[in-house]
Amino acid sequence: MTSTSTSALPVSSSAAVPRYAILVAGGSGSRMGADRPKQFLNLLGEPVLLHTLRRFTDPAVQLAECVVVLPAEQFATWEQLCQQHHVTIRHRVVAGGETRWASVRNGLAELKQYPAGLVAVHDGVRPLVSAVVIEQTFAAASQHGAAVAAVAPKDSVRGLAQQGSYALDRSRLRLVQTPQCFELNLLRRAYQLPELPTFTDDASVVEDLQPIYMVAGDYRNLKITTPEDLIVAEALLRAEQGAQQPQ
Ligand SMILES: Nc1ccn([C@@H]2O[C@H](COP(=O)(O)OP(=O)(O)OP(=O)(O)O)[C@@H](O)[C@H]2O)c(=O)n1
Ligand SMILES: C[C@](O)(CO)[C@H](O)COP(=O)(O)O
């Protein structure tokens, strides 16, 4: 199913290359253990996914098209939430697949009418992504073909061995976030290859075709995965809203 609501996305003529986004929200949220998928949980009065949609469809991002991937059985839930929250942001809704990889592939198919451009893949459950991170990741993809947001680990990191464990050099490691931005046709080629069990994100799907450039992510750009993430996200959002109030 494809659904679109009324108002047009604000595409600026200054965007030299058209930009698209695929917001993947096709998961079930098993680690959250809630009564519904975590993308629909309430975060300061609005569903997590609505926060994410608002960030990506902000006029500053200059998106030409936004695709939201959902579990097929949740279309009605999302439609009802959009009505309840008076959402008029134009977006397409498509059914996800068994895995994140399959959901992204379905999202990409929804962009088939576009010959070229840049596409961001973003987790629907990263509602705190900033305009700066989105912009810098798109800009780096425009220059390098493939770019992902990432942050340095703050903790010490150990690898697991058959017996015990061993220290890893964390200065050589990065924690990868989304957005992950790509030239549209590069991402298409990568998603024509067979799915591997090692794919955890889009960079791992693309990296055999193109080196992945890393952009400074943001520790606030957390992925809502387990219940404490929601508490942290709420605190971060309150701080953001407080900072926007006039003194
Ligand atoms: N078949 C799937 C699986 C995941 N995702 C999306 O990919 C993002 C990252 O996945 P994750 O945090 O693992 O979400 P879930 O799969 O929902 O959670 P869990 O692994 O705890 O079940 C989420 O926005 C999720 O909705 C998706 O679109 N389709
Ligand atoms: C795509 C991702 O958010 C990058 O950190 C992550 O790989 C998703 O992993 P998950 O196992 O689906 O939560």
From TrEMBL:
EC number annotated for this UniProt entry: 2.7.7.60
Source superkingdom: Bacteria
CDD domains registered for this protein in UniProt: CDP-ME_synthetase
Enzyme superclass (EC): transferase
A molecular-function term among this protein's GO annotations: 2-C-methyl-D-erythritol 4-phosphate cytidylyltransferase activity
Keyword field contains Nucleotidyltransferase: yes
The keyword Ligase appears for this protein: no
Site (Transition state stabilizer) location in chain: R31, K38
Annotated site residues (Positions MEP for the nucleophilic attack) in this chain: R170, K223
Catalytic activity: 2-C-methyl-D-erythritol 4-phosphate + CTP + H(+) = 4-CDP-2-C-methyl-D-erythritol + diphosphate
Family annotation (Pfam families): IspD
HAMAP family for this protein: IspD
Annotated function: Catalyzes the formation of 4-diphosphocytidyl-2-C-methyl-D-erythritol from CTP and 2-C-methyl-D-erythritol 4-phosphate (MEP).
Family, as annotated: Belongs to the IspD/TarI cytidylyltransferase family. IspD subfamily.
Name recorded for this polypeptide: 2-C-methyl-D-erythritol 4-phosphate cytidylyltransferase
Name of the gene encoding the protein in the UniProt record: ispD
